Amino acid sequence: MGEGDGAVRRPGVSCVFVCHDGAGRVLLARRSAGARDEPGTWDCGAGALEFGESFETAVAREVYEEYGTRPLRIEQLGVRNVLRGDPVDSHWVAVVFAVRVAPEAVTIGEPHKFDALRWCPPDALPAPLHSQCGESLALFVRSASSAEAGG
User: Fold this and answer.
1) Residues whose CB is less than 8 angstroms from the CB of residue 73 and which lie 6 or more positions away in sequence, other chains included
2) Beta-carbon neighbour count of residue 68 at 10 Å?
3) CA-based Rg of the chain, rounded to a whole angstrom?
């Protein structure tokens, strides 16, 4: 896509979700060889917002597709402007959510994208992490710390 060809590129909107068990552990999935990018890295979940869809509907749909379970609670944590590449070749507005799920109900719903799941405390994460995972987890940790502090 060159300058002057009339094509307009716009950022996509992604719903990123940090699934948790309500007891301090987060769920991460290892990206398989068939993943779109960064195979072998651990990541929280995400999916594109579809036209006409609410954030909550998108998150519930994606959690079910990726982990085979329905959210027990969805809480919006923040928004990130994600620019990848130099020059930028990928641009997403990521709306980040904390999603409580029942750990015993979680399964790999998309084995072509993920090959392992792991529950872990945010201070003992597996490596390597996906390049975008750390900032989303940081929003989750800040939110959890704020809730524990009463505000």
Assistant:
1) 98, 99, 100
2) 14
3) 16
Which residue in this structure is represented by tokens 């800040």?
Answer: 142
Tell me how far apart the alpha carbons of residues 140 and 78 are, in angstroms, rounded to a whole number. 9
Q: What is the pLDDT of residues 40-91, one digit of tens each?
A: 999 999 999 999 999 999 999 999 999 999 999 999 999 999 999 999 999 9
Rounded-to-integer distance, Cα 53 and Cα 144, Å: 27
Identify which of 54, 51, 63, 84 has the alpha carbon closest to the alpha carbon of residue 16.
63
- Of the candidates 31, 39, 44, 38, the residue with the CA atom closest to the CA atom of residue 115: 31
pTM (two decimals): 0.91
Q: In angstroms, how far is CA 97 from the centroid of its own chain?
A: 8
Give the torsion sign (CA, 125, 131, 136, 141). Answer: positive
- What are the start-end ranges of the H helices in 1-151? 55-67, 133-148
Q: How many whole angstroms separate alpha carbon 114 and alpha carbon 31?
A: 5
d(CA 12, CA 5): 21
Write down the residue that tokens 């490596």 correspond to: 127
Average pLDDT over residues 119-146: 94
Nearest to 140 by CA among 87, 77, 67, 91: 77
